[in-house]
Write a structure and sequence with these properties.
Number of domains: 1
Radius of gyration: 15 Å
CATH topology: Hypothetical protein af1432
Low-confidence stretches: none
Number of helices: 7
Helix content: 40-55%
Oligomer: single chain
Bound molecules: fe (ii) ion
Number of strands: 0
Mean pLDDT: 95
Strand content: under 5%
Order of helices and strands: HHHHHHH
Distance between the termini: 32 Å
């Protein structure tokens, strides 16, 4: 089993994902479920390939899987998700430095960035995963108009 599937199978990861799905069952805005994590992973990995960036695929997928996992912990979710990454990743075979890279990127994933660093790719792919142009809750969403994804981006 590769290490990202170990994250997905980790009891703490599964528990957090379940709690997020329960809390968001009636949510009209964007969700923070596994689909969102995998959209963030795949969009980011396309950027990594297109831009020929030296970012490890498995490590990037790990960051995408974990970036919102602390969403309903009661703390700011970037901090909570980074803390969960620090707990979960070493138990899935990631080294201390790999875990630190992912936790640092998760900590700043809410800051908008167009750069090419690991954290930049996580942050921009997270935002680009949202289909604002077909959102039924667009009128009530707090995202400013200029921040929204208004069309299919290729
Ligand atoms: Fe987030
Ligand atoms: Fe996200």
């Amino acid at each position: 089993m590769h290490r990202c599937n170990k994250i997905y199978s980790h009891p703490l990861y599964k528990e957090c994902l379940k709690r997020i799905e329960e809390k968001e069952a009636d949510r009209i805005f964007c969700l923070h479920n596994l689909d969102h994590a995998l959209d963030t992973a795949r969009i980011g990995y396309i950027k990594i390939l297109e831009r020929k960036l030296d970012i490890d695929k498995e490590l990037y997928y790990a960051a995408a899987l974990l970036h919102d996992i602390g969403r309903y912990s009661g703390k700011p979710h970037s901090e909570a998700s980074a803390e969960y990454a620090l707990k979960i990743m070493p138990e899935c075979g990631f080294s201390e430095s790999e875990t630190r890279t992912v936790a640092d990127a998760i900590l700043c994933h809410r800051t908008k960035s167009d750069g090419n660093s690991f954290a930049d790719i996580l942050s921009s792919s997270d935002k680009e995963s949202r289909l604002c142009f077909k959102c039924r809750a667009a009128d009530e969403c707090y995202w400013q108009n200029e921040k929204r994804n208004k069309e299919i981006d290729i």
